Amino acid sequence: MNVAKKEQPLSLTIEVARRILEASKQRAQELRSPVSIAIVDAGGHLVLFERMMAPYGWATGNICLAKASTAVMFNQSTDAVAQWGSGIPGFASSMATMTQGKFIMAAGGWPIRMGGATIGGIGISGGNAPGRDDEIARAGLAAVESMAPATPAMQYSNSMSQAAVSPFPQQPAPAYSSISQPQPQAASSLNSPTPQINPANTHHLASDQGNPYGDEQVSYDQFNETRGDQT
Question: Which of 86, 104, 151, 162 shows the greatest Cβ crowding within 10 Å of its Cβ?
Answer without folding.
Answer: 104
